[in-house]
Specification:
Elements: H1 25-41, H2 46-52, H3 60-69, H4 71-87, H5 92-103, H6 125-130, E1 131-138, E2 143-149, H7 152-163, H8 167-173
Antiparallel strand pairs: 1-2
């Protein structure tokens, strides 16, 4: 009896691996954009931004940390930060004007030359910038208007730090260290 040789099956070519769900270039770009937007709007919380961008699992903090280090995410955050700053007109001049309004605010600026309280709409812009809130309480007998100003000492401290006025105080607080150097030779 002759043995028949069985044909050796040809190995099937391995199919190309399919990209995992959400791992395509388009999905990665969309996730990067979603992460950056969420990160900018939630107070820079990378964990929450990763969840909002569609990351799942128990390591959301790690996913957020990794996304923050990606150059494309950093570029998106930088570009978006510039856009937001431009929309808000955030520049050094406006910052200084607002800070100055708070630092140099005076309660007397709320009153006119005749001693009467000015209407809020009649207050100069720099005075309105120093006011954080206005409360009006009306009773049958009278009306009480309460103005609350932004924190003036904090504004003065920020200005002082910006101008370097506290450097001498910081130097005085440093402990005295004496170094003795002997040259041998």
């Amino acid at each position: 009896m002759t043995k028949r040789k069985r044909p050796v099956p040809k190995p099937k070519p391995k199919p190309k691996p399919k990209p995992k769900a959400g791992r395509s270039a388009a999905a990665t770009a969309a996730r990067s954009i979603a992460f950056a937007e969420a990160y900018m709007t939630n107070g820079h919380n990378a964990t929450a931004a990763a969840a909002a961008a569609g990351c799942t699992g128990s390591q959301l903090g790690n996913a957020g940390w990794k996304l923050l280090r990606k150059p494309e995410v950093q570029a998106i955050l930088a570009a978006r930060g510039r856009q937001v700053a431009e929309l808000a007109e955030m520049n050094t001049e406006n910052w200084a004007l607002e800070l100055r309004a708070v630092a140099y605010s005076r309660v007397g600026d709320l009153f006119g030359p005749d001693g009467r309280l000015l209407a809020v709409s009649a207050l100069p812009e720099r005075v309105r910038g120093a006011i954080s809130s206005v409360k009006v309480r009306t009773t049958r007998d009278d009306e009480t208007i309460e103005f609350k100003f932004w924190n003036k000492p904090v504004a003065l401290e920020i200005m002082g730090r910006h101008r370097g006025l506290f450097e001498k105080d910081n130097a005085q607080q440093a402990s005295d260290i004496r170094v003795r150097v002997e040259l041998v030779g």
